[in-house]
Amino acid sequence: MGTITAVVNLTLDGVMQAPGRADEDTRYGFTGGGWAHRYADPVQAEVMGRHMAAHSGGGLLFGRRTYEDFYGFWPHQTDNPYTEVLDKTEKFVASRTLREPLPWQNSTLLAGDAVAAVQKLLADRPHLNLVVLGSGELLRSLMRAGMSDEYLLSIHPLTVGPGIRLFDGVDVGRLRLADSVTTTTGVIIATYRPAGEESL
């Protein structure tokens, strides 16, 4: 069976909401958006670039909100190492409201129940490895179903108080630290995997 890796930016108090810019996601009155930018550095770019290269040939899995946000930004960017990769990579979008054709090239709609649709996708394509970028609601649904195989968490050294948190309402059990890198700005990029029986 293929794997699902969650790639998430987090604050130290666990918030994943709106790391990119102030107006990215203002649900529930969130006013702290854009908190990740000041921490970007070459170490983080190198680690994330290496991660993207390692998952080349796999697919990206999005919820509707994150897909629309990415599509509104990345296809219009130039002079960066990410746009071409994102354009060429297969993208799967779990949504009850979107309709095909989707606007971004190499995009496929997974309609209906998200967990069931992803399970069917992996059953039909058992060697497909998927990376979930952000997409908190979708990711928490997959986590509740025990379908996340790896967490690549960029933990930023700040707190923002109220906001949507990655592990809100989810208990994934014990995790094992597989790798960690600290950037020059204090971001800890940590890779966790379910611990299973090996650590009991």
Write up this protein.
This protein has 200 residues and is α/β, with parallel strands linked by helices. 24% of the residues lie in helices and 25% in strands. It is built from 5 helices and 8 strands; from the N terminus they run βαβααββαβαβββ. It has helices at 42-54, 64-73, 83-88, 114-124, 136-144, and strands at residues 4-11, 59-63, 90-95, 107-111, 130-133, 150-156, 175-182, 188-194. The protein has an 8-stranded mixed beta sheet with strand order 4-3-2-5-1-6-8-7. It is globular and about 40 Å long.
Which features would summarize this protein structure in a list?
alpha/beta; 5 helices; 8-stranded mixed β-sheet; 200 residues; globular
> H/E element string?
EHEHHEEHEHEEE
Q: Strand arrangement, largest sheet?
A: 4-3-2-5-1-6-8-7
Q: Compute the number of helices.
A: 5
Q: Helical amount among residues, as a percent range?
A: 10-25%
Q: Could you tell me the radius of gyration in angstroms?
A: 16 Å
Low-confidence stretches: none
Straight-line distance between termini: 25 Å
Calculate the mean pLDDT score and round it: 93
Rough outline: globular
Total beta strands: 8
Strand content: 25-35%
Which sheet architecture does the biggest sheet show? 8 strands, mixed
Quickly give the structural class: alpha/beta
